[in-house]
Specification:
Helices cover about 50% and strands about 20% of the residues. The chain is globular, with a radius of gyration of 16 Å. The two termini are about 30 Å apart. The protein is an alpha/beta fold. Helix 3 links the parallel strand 2 and strand 3. The strands form two sheets. A three-stranded parallel beta sheet has the order 1-2-3, with helices on both faces. Strands 4-5 form a two-stranded antiparallel ribbon. The chain is built from five helices and five strands; from the N terminus they run αβαβαβααββ. About 20% of the residues are buried. Helix 4 runs antiparallel to helix 5.
Length: about 150
């Protein structure tokens, strides 16, 4: 039977609330609109840093525009605590390399799963750099409704 990540999350949030702690969370964001609900949902429990990283956005002006929209959203949202922002690098060549051979894949196919893995692997790297987490720790992310665990490399 597959793990129900919604149940795992609810249990984790109850444990955090009971402890009175506010753990740090690096939250990957591919765009502002996708992050709004997650921010509202998790901000009461975590000190959040949003990591905007989306290597499949072109041209660079569009990437920068979307990053600024993420910043604007954070500034305008009414959250219980401030949320930090971390801008990832503009790296479209990583996406193009990853997508090679998947050009005919349908939306939601293996190209998308590979892109999710690419984004979350870069998020894990940012977590190691920014939060100085240990290699033994695991980043758990959910993108496109798919739960993934990525051991830090």
């Amino acid at each position: 039977m597959k793990e129900n990540y919604s149940i795992v999350l609810e249990k984790t949030l109850k444990e955090i609330a009971a402890s009175g702690a506010r753990p740090r969370l690096l939250l990957h964001s591919c765009c502002g609109p996708c992050s709004s609900y997650v921010l509202e949902y998790l901000a009461p429990y975590f000190d959040i840093t949003v990591f905007y990283y989306n290597p499949n956005i072109s041209p660079e002006t569009e990437f920068r525009f979307r990053a600024e929209e993420q910043r604007r959203l954070l500034a305008e949202m009414s959250l219980p605590v401030p949320v930090s922002f971390l801008l990832g690098e503009y790296e479209p060549e990583l996406f193009y390399t990853m997508a090679k051979g998947y050009e005919t894949e349908p939306e939601g196919g293996e190209r998308c799963f590979s892109c999710y893995r690419l984004r979350l692997a870069r998020t894990a790297k940012a977590a190691a750099e920014v939060f100085q987490v240990e290699k033994e720790q695991v980043l758990i992310g959910s993108t496109g409704g798919i739960g993934m665990q990525l051991p830090m490399e």
